[in-house]
Amino acid sequence: MRELKKSERIFVQSTESFPGGVNSPVRSFNAVKSMPPVIYKAKGPYVYDVDGNKYIDYVCSFGPMILGHLDKSVVKSINKILLKGMSFGAITPYELELAKLVREAFPSMERMRFVNSGTEATMSAIRLARGYTGKDYIIKFEGCYHGHSDSLLVKAGSGSMTFSIPSSHGVPFDLARYTLTAQFNDISSVERLFHQFKNKIACIIVEPIPANMGVIKPDINFLVFLRQITKENKSLLIFDEVITGFRLCFGGAQKFYKIEPDITTLGKILGGGLPIGCYGGKKYIMEKIAPEGPVYQAGTLSGNPIVMASGIATLTKLKDKKIYKILESRGRLLEKNIIKTCKRYRIPVSFNRVGSLFTLFFNDRPVIDYKTALKSDTNLYAEFFRMLLKKGVYLAPSQFEAGFISLAHTDSIINKTCKIFNEVILILNSKLQVAN
User: Fold this and answer.
1) Potential cystine with 141: which of 106, 184, 185, 365 (Cβ 3.0-4.6 Å)?
2) For residue 258, which phi and psi values (nearest 5 degrees)?
3) pTM exceeds 0.85
4) Tens digits of per-residue pLDDT, 349-393?
């Protein structure tokens, strides 16, 4: 690889315009103590930086690029609509076309509303749940991320039964206290909250497969329990499928696990790489949204025609069930090789994968929840990350972000990745032997 001289120059200039030099904290390389390459183009399974370096991309724009970068059918669809206009601020036929595809994949979403981001979708879903139930408290799970709206930017206090405290400055405690935090995969932590705040809980919001503390596999009995306890207490169950929607299958985690929530939020893949969010549910719940009902939500660019075109092309292609079989096969190939190599060199690793969604934790125990995830060796990951990057493999710059495989990651690309991975692990093993 070439040096990152151009990238460094652009990044230094960026720090004068953007906090930390980035427009989203997840793009920062602070956690891996490195200088970020500045990406200027992408194609298929690759991204390219301004210095001429080429990387096998497992970030995939943090999930949306399931078909790979610049998929021909998506580009063609965008260009076709682009020539007709970029934004109308009016009803378009493209909204309805995409909505029909969403409803086909997610029958639980009888009605829906398109928005512009996953954060906007979850924020609106929470407001709807409170408006529909007339209750104020919500339950989220420690380590699950649902966007940066004030109600959801909280973490646990001294225990799962206490009020939550803001995890960001600028979030009023009086607002954050209505967000209760439980432990993912822990039934008793949820039961205690429903007992303590009886008849006061509007909803549970959950990533059915958490992917923002690294990928955590759910206990199916836990998800079934969430469905039961919300029904029993006349609360709503919200599945945040911003990441899992269309990632696991054409129908998301709810189809994968055969559990139907009251409200679903979508994003990322839904827009085929362009900004989008969506929330929806049963007709009798969604009719509370303005202009039909009293729960207000609006957006100037919601249902943008170019975004709709990108989404239509993406979802149309994803209706082919063979795609998910291919993605599962490639995910399994990557997992098998990585685990085999780590065992050979006795590198402690927990490889969590569901389909084409994965996280490699440097941990000597299975990572099953937020607490075990936090015990991972972040310093070892940082060194591993830097070495992979130098050899042309691009992962997320955090131990606790998910990795993504796209349709453009062919078997040969996966095998090439595994070869590079083997080289890096061999070097890491040598360094660890010297250190010990």
Assistant:
1) 184
2) 60, 50
3) yes
4) 999 999 999 999 999 899 999 999 999 999 999 999 999 999 999
